[in-house]
Amino acid sequence: DPEREVPLGESPVSPADGRVVEISTEMESRYLREESVKIGIFLSIFDTHINRAPMAGRVEYMTYAPGRFINALRKDSSRVNESNWIGLQNSKHRLLVRQIAGTIARRIRCDIAMLEELERGQKIGIICYGSGAELYIPKRFFKPTVKAGDRLKAGETLLGEWIT
Fold it and tell me: What is the DSSP letter of 80?
């Protein structure tokens, strides 16, 4: 659980340590309900598994989805594995974070509550070992600057820029 130095500004930071395995555009229908940039992150067993809030905001959406525990590197894992969804909103933006369980420890812990106000980079929970995280941000408001293969640090790595 290393200390992190959250950079100044409002650009979203990574919710998890790990490697970017996907950047795509898709219709996010749970919370954002619009075309969104999806950033998929794989957390190996050697990564810190503490998750952090990508932006300051209020928890407006939370839901747990039971599921399987297949290897997080498999493409279908994000569709079928146990996960927890967290929607954040502030006066300017909304985004959605997904914690995805993996094969080994098969556990997600979320340490925040509905309507709680979060600071950017604040700890929000942990996904236990060999797992994944996803971040969805409305495409019309966000331009990613990370790319597949990049290494990320939760609470520190800037993921892109807000489009005003």
Answer: H
